[in-house]
Write a structure and sequence with these properties.
The chain is mainly alpha-helical. It is about 50% helix and about 0% strand. It contains seven helices and no strands. Helix 4 crosses helix 5, helix 4 crosses helix 7 and helix 5 packs across helix 6. The longest helix has 15 residues. The chain is extended.
Length: about 130
C-alpha cells in the first residue's frame, strides 16, 4: 500500500520523500532524444510551410506539412508534433493568411537554399567578413 502512495507523488515532492532536500532540488540527467530533423530538413520545412497550400486540404496544416516532408526526405514518418515544435521555434503560423510566403518550392529553390545553408555550416574564416541579413 505504501509503494502505491509513493508512485502517486509527483516530481520534487517524491524525490524529497524518498531521498532528502538535496535530491528534491536536483534532477536526474534526462535521456533526451536527438532532433529528428537536420538543419537542412528544418529549412525545407520552413520553405514548404511558407509556400502556397492547396485550397481544399482534407487534413490540417501540420499533417499536410508532415506528409510533404516525408515525401521530400528520407524519413519514414514525421509527427505533427515535430512539425508544430519546429514551426513554433521559427515563429511561423502557416494557417494564417497574413504571413510572408514563398511562391513555389521547386528544385531550383531547394538547390539555392542548400547553397546558403552550406555557407552557414562552414567554419568561420577570420580573413573573410561575414555579413548576416535578417
Amino acid at each position: 500500500m505504501l509503494a502505491w502512495v509513493f508512485d502517486r507523488i509527483p516530481g520534487p515532492k517524491r524525490r524529497f520523500v524518498l531521498g532528502n532536500l538535496e535530491a528534491a532540488l536536483s534532477e536526474e540527467p534526462r535521456s533526451g532524444a536527438d532532433r529528428k530533423l537536420s538543419g537542412k530538413e528544418e529549412a525545407l520545412l520552413v520553405a514548404t510551410a511558407c509556400s502556397s497550400r492547396p485550397r481544399a486540404a482534407p487534413v490540417g496544416p501540420m499533417e499536410l506539412l508532415a506528409g510533404e516532408l516525408v515525401r521530400l526526405t528520407a524519413h519514414d514518418s514525421i509527427s505533427r508534433e515535430t512539425v508544430r515544435r519546429r514551426l513554433a521555434e521559427n515563429d511561423l503560423k502557416p494557417w494564417r493568411k497574413d504571413m510572408w510566403c514563398i511562391p513555389q518550392v521547386d528544385g531550383e529553390y531547394v538547390a539555392r537554399m542548400e547553397d546558403v545553408l552550406d555557407l552557414y555550416a562552414e567554419a568561420p574564416d577570420p580573413k573573410r567578413r561575414l555579413l548576416c541579413l535578417r
